[in-house]
């Protein structure tokens, strides 16, 4: 489908359970792959990003059985010894897969090449490669430009001390942390400068603990030599995906409950609800559900560094608020699937807003809203977030809706089902 038009309607009301978290699924896959024994991941996400991770692990010689209908993945762990002595891995546009595998394959013995889409070849990875070299790896950018493809000539990871820059992506640190227990010596990691998206590092540490490896964290991360233990592991619904349904309640003054999440979720993006509360919505946190009730909205100023995957969602909500909304602290999202600051500013202007683009964010001033054809830049979050505007504004058409397959293939179907039946999926 080249495009999809969103039909306006009344308030969105109902209950939804989004698919499993992409971030947790790919972290659990790495830990399970390195573990001793067979793990079963339940509630696992089936999407482009998780499929490329699964296929890469298979190319590394691991036995991975994926049942999308049952939302399960069975992984026979390798005990830290990668079976394949060489592999050419294609990760498409999956940042987690690229960063996590780059660290993981340094544990092997042989030559590994990891490549991705044209956009992936523009996304920086030199900070991760530099840290791996400090730990004894031969890790290089094939073109010498600090971007993929990367080539790893591995002979095991020596370990020791490394400094890792934190300003571009927390996934660099997460990849290092998950591989580090299998280094030949304990690993000490220090973050240089500001670490973006800290909740994702806390998520990484929580998944590692669940598989039996605890990291001593203070001003540095001390990772012991250790072994992951295979286990049955349940994956939460995706909190980033949930943000679209919370936002639908806010935009339409509806009432949406997302099942499977709580204030204590592993995923920092549940804090998006706090943004909606500041804008005027009612938010109720249950033991296994979060409910958002839409109310008249007001603009806010917010540092979204910890929840930067929801910037575009907040941008859509901001169009319906009284007064401007200012987002700061998210310069690093210029290095995502697209330059998300520039792309969001461009598309919000099409819809009638005045947008001041800044180096680390943007200021959105609502104007008279109008329909528009929205370009999505092969970015799943552009498609899902700006589709929400069409719930209230006639004439909103989303180009390339299929790009949501990266993390949420059934998004448009689930949104329509929720609107028409009050329950999705």
Short structural summary:
The chain is α/β, with parallel strands linked by helices.
C-alpha Rg (nearest Å) = 21 Å
What is the number of beta strands?
A: 24
Helix/strand/pairing category: alpha/beta
Largest sheet: 5 strands, mixed
Mean pLDDT: 97
- Unreliable runs: none
Largest sheet strand order: 16-17-15-2-24
Q: Strand fraction band?
A: 15-25%
Quaternary assembly: single chain
Q: Distance N terminus to C terminus?
A: 21 Å
Q: How many helical stretches?
A: 12
Helix content: 25-40%
Backbone shape: globular
Question: Which descriptors would you attach to this protein?
Answer:
single chain; 425 residues; alpha/beta; five-stranded mixed β-sheet; four-stranded mixed β-sheet; 24 strands; globular
Structural commentary:
The chain is of the alpha/beta class and 425 residues long. The protein has 12 helices and 24 strands. A 5-stranded mixed sheet has the order 16-17-15-2-24, with helices on one face. A 4-stranded mixed sheet has the order 4-5-3-14, with helices on one face. The protein has a 4-stranded mixed sheet with strand order 6-7-9-8. A hairpin with a 3-residue loop joins strand 16 and strand 17 (289-293). Helix 9 packs parallel to helix 11 (380-387). The longest helix has 14 residues, at 239-252. It is globular, with a radius of gyration of 21 Å.
């Amino acid at each position: 489908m080249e495009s999809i038009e969103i039909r306006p309607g009344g308030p969105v009301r109902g209950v939804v359970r989004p698919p499993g978290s992409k971030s947790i699924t790919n972290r659990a896959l790495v830990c399970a792959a390195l573990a001793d024994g067979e793990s079963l991941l339940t509630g696992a996400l089936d999407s482009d990003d998780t499929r490329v991770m699964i296929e890469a692990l298979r190319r590394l010689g691991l036995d991975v059985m994926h049942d999308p209908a049952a939302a399960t993945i069975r992984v026979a762990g390798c005990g830290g010894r990668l079976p394949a002595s060489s592999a050419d891995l294609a990760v498409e546009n999956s940042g987690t897969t690229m960063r996590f595998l780059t660290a993981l394959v340094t544990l092997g013995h042989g030559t590994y090449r990891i490549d991705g889409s044209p956009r992936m070849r523009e996304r920086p990875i030199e900070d991760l490669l530099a840290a791996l070299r400090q730990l004894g790896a031969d890790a290089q950018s094939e073109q010498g430009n600090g971007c993929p493809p990367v080539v790893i000539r591995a002979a095991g990871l020596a370990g020791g001390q490394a400094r890792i820059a934190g300003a571009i992506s927390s996934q660099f640190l997460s990849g290092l942390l998950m591989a580090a227990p299998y280094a030949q010596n304990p690993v000490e990691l220090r973050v240089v400068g500001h670490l973006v998206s800290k909740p994702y590092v806390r998520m990484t540490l929580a998944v590692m603990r669940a598989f039996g490896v605890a990291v001593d964290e203070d001003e540095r991360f001390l990772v012991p030599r250790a072994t992951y233990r295979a286990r049955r592991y349940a994956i939460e619904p995706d909190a980033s995906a949930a943000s679209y349904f919370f936002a639908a309640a806010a935009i339409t003054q509806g009432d949406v409950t997302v099942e499977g999440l709580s204030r204590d979720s592993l995923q920092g993006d549940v804090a998006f609800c706090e943004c909606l509360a500041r804008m005027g919505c009612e938010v109720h946190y249950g033991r296994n559900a979060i409910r958002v009730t839409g109310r008249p909205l007001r603009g806010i100023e917010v540092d979204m560094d910890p929840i930067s995957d929801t910037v575009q969602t907040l941008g859509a909500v901001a169009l319906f608020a009284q007064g401007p909304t200012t987002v700061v602290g998210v310069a690093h999202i210029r290095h995502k699937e697209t330059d998300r600051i520039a792309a969001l500013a461009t598309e919000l202007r099409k819809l009638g807003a005045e947008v001041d683009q800044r180096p680390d964010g943007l200021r959105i001033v609502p104007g008279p809203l109008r329909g528009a054809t929205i370009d999505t830049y092969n970015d799943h979050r552009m498609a899902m977030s700006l589709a929400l505007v069409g719930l209230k504004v006639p004439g909103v058409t989303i180009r390339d809706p299929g790009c949501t397959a990266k993390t949420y293939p059934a998004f448009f179907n689930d949104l329509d089902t929720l609107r028409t039946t009050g329950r999705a999926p």
